[in-house]
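sry for the spam today, last one i promise. struct tokens for design, 235 residues
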């Protein structure tokens, strides 16, 4: 142990390289976040609507490449807590953009429910918890009061891995395996009974749009109508 200095030991526990690009020792762009200025600039770009998605409209903070891809991979594959916080900040920025456009309710005036997209229990266990759900909780803290996170959707044990599946296969996969917790579902229903309340679906990446579209349809059939979806990146 004598060969390490205190600062080096701390670096083994608290990584200071940028979660999006891996640049080491870059001055942080945001206090408390391992994010360099260049990546922070890219992650603040104006969100755009994802093309060819079904209802509701889905908006992405960026394309699946560069810093957006880096943040997703750092959160999901490297299991970096600071990447989850950055992902939350990116989602919060997209939500705020939709609030300014009138797509979602201003949570200072009416309730706003954020509903994380479903994932398999296996994936959540392998990653130390559902990354999307944790990112949405981080986003809620950034956006502030008036935001509720309703996280009651999972995919059953028979669900297939999304990689390589087309839109139709993804739709069938979620239709056959979606499980929604009834307690959380009723909580969403109660939130949306408030005047002016809106609900928004959240995921990390949109590839075909099938996941959020089928999730929205399942929720609507159960009395929860969503106004939009937001993702970190569009693949």
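last one done:
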């Amino acid at each position: 142990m004598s060969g390490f200095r205190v600062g080096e030991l701390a670096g083994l526990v608290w990584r200071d390289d940028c979660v999006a690009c891996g640049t080491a020792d870059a001055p942080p762009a945001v206090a408390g976040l391992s994010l360099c200025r260049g990546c922070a600039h890219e992650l603040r770009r104006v969100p755009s609507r994802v093309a060819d998605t079904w209802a509701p409209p889905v908006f992405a903070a960026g394309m699946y490449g560069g810093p957006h891809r880096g943040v997703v991979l750092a959160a999901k594959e490297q299991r970096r807590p600071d990447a989850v916080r950055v992902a939350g900040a990116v989602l919060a920025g997209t939500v705020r953009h939709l609030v300014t456009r009138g797509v979602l309710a201003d949570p200072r005036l009416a309730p706003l429910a954020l509903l994380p997209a479903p994932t398999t229990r296996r994936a959540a266990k392998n990653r130390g918890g559902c990354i999307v759900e944790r990112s949405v909780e981080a986003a809620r803290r950034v956006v502030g009061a008036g935001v509720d996170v309703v996280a009651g959707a999972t995919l059953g044990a028979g669900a297939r891995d999304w990689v390589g599946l087309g839109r139709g296969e993804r739709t069938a996969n979620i239709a056959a395996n979606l499980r929604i917790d009834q307690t959380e579902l009723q909580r969403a229903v109660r939130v949306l009974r408030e005047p002016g309340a809106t609900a928004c679906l959240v995921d990390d990446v949109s590839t075909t749009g099938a996941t959020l579209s089928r999730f929205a349809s399942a929720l609507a059939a159960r009395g929860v109508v969503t106004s939009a979806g937001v993702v970190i990146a569009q693949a």
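The two ends are 45 Å apart (CA to CA). ok im logging off now
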